[in-house]
Specification:
GO molecular function: acyltransferase activity, transferring groups other than amino-acyl groups; O-methyltransferase activity; protein dimerization activity; S-adenosylmethionine-dependent methyltransferase activity
Keywords: Acyltransferase, Methyltransferase, S-adenosyl-L-methionine, Transferase
Family: Belongs to the thiolase-like superfamily. Chalcone/stilbene synthases family.
Low-confidence stretches: 498-502
Helix content: 40-55%
Number of strands: 16
CATH architecture of the largest domain: 3-Layer(aba) Sandwich
CATH superfamily of the largest domain: Thiolase/Chalcone synthase
CATH topology of the largest domain: Peroxisomal Thiolase, Chain A, domain 1
Pfam family, one: Dimerisation
Structural class: alpha/beta
Mean pLDDT: 82
CATH class of the largest domain: Alpha Beta
Number of domains: 3
Amino acid sequence: MEPNNKSSNEEAKELLEAVTHISNHNIAYLNSMALKCAIQLGIPEAIHKHGKPVTIDELAKALSIHPNKAPSLHQLMRLLVHSKFFATKTLTNNNINGDETLLFDLTLNSQLLLKDHPLTQAPLTLMGADPLVTKPSHNFATWFQNHDVKTSESPFYFTYGRHLYEGVPSDDTKFDDLFQQAMTSDSQLIARVLLTSNEFKGVMHGVESLVDVGGGDGTMASSIAVAYPEVKCTVFDLPNVVEGIQRNEKVENLTYVAGDMFEAIPRAQVILLKWILHNWSDENCIKVLKQCKEAIPRRDKGGKLLIIDMVVGIPSDNLNQLLADVHMMSLLGGEKSMITKRYFYLTEEILKENPHIGDNNASSVKTRQVLLANEIPKLGKETAEKAIKEWGKPKSMITHLIFGTNSDFDLPGADFRLAKLLGLEPTIKRFILPLGACHAGGTALLIAKDIAENNRGARVLVICSESTAISFHAPTETHLVPLAIFGDGAGAMIVDSEHAIQSRLSEIGMTIHLSPDVPKIIAKNIQTSLSESFEDIGISDWNSIFWVAHPGGPAILNQVEAKLGLETSKLSSSRHTLSEYGNMWGASVMFVMDEMRKRSLKEGKATTGEGCEWGVLVAFGPGITVETIVLRSMPITY
């Protein structure tokens, strides 16, 4: 009987595939170098000039390559054929042996690398493979471990000590010329795609003026101006860029204006931002968008903002998106909101049916309350049922209900309607925490703890349910950040044995104001708050405890982490919640606790607090209010 080697053969196959995978990625840079070489040698031009497919010897001769190197040229062409930059065909010779000759021809990919092609991508390709651009990637690991705020802006800044748009530290002006050529070639391609799209024709209908922000040499704006002679087009860029532009005087409806997009943008019906926002941090993007809002009229007056940029899907399996994202990280860095997705009750259909919700001058609180009177209790019911199911005991044992919300103000309150939806006992004691903002989750748990500890047999159901429908508005300078970070959500838990943040409920709904000083104020006072809370326990090492921090925003988490010298893993549950759901007011801390509990179990930790016995919950709200609660984790039994 033959031995069964199937498992060992499969193991060997998998091992070989893994080694091959590593090897392919290790030398994948040769794809870029081979493409760069083809452009520099002029291979696309040589084949194009020949007028028909060429043999390797004909190609070597056309490129003035020594015949001894023809075999090496053949190796290069094989790789480029595999990458679909060139195609091959075989020609059977009319001789006695019937030999075949291999011929090389252009593909659409290599046609776009012809230097005189109207949509050539050769300059952009050469710039991407230039040593000055690739050098920062060699410093990725060092950059990631560097904690200096200024030099950590981006690997490019870390390498050269300056921003990309301040110029590359080189005495050779060829790169500057290559950079401008690359931007021009990119604009030519985008303009061709844009001007032939029906969507853009709809955008330009009735438009009288357009400003191309960061328009460079005017290639994009010039193309639009030629296609739409009735539209006054303006190229807007920094003074040093505008001064060096060779202006197209033949296009009468095209002008050039120098300035700074962070300070002011010329007024127009349409503002165009092409490849602008991905270059900057969230904070700087907001500054630009504010200036755009000031520059265009209201929507009903024809105001439009046209953004052309790449959006990375979350999750994304699009290699081009992922590579472009890391490429931008390397060159420009820029701290983003870290929020990859959020959930909303409001839909486009609801907004179309109730357009006054987005009108900052219209009374809309009645409409909002009609929408939320059912939604908030329903959302709370859904999360409460999950908590009760995991608790594993009959809901008749629940003695108290604490409900926190900023989103529903009807009477009888959402707590009453929620109790009925859940079928809780009529005798249950209910408490509602209205307008508790982001610290409501901490406050609700603190009250629940006191009730459970001082009332034998008490079982307290804590629920926070929120929807941004109460605070959704058309963007304004004051309220743009809250619109960008808040999301809808609800959390539930059963418990047993100086005005930097402001919100106001008025006839137009709830408005929220966040001062840029909030992270600094919290960081300044967090040490004192912790010291007072842990004084009786004798803990002063904040890395020895687990952290349930309200994910108010990346700047708050970063400031707290830096101020206390926390290890990066300490706030990972908070960062995960921010990334997956955004800021959900009081419900957020419950999501953080749940994420920590599940992660601790998955990683085999000794306790639900990442293996630590003691921990802290810190939640932030208006005032500023900092709710600090000392937590003690439960041991995990496996």
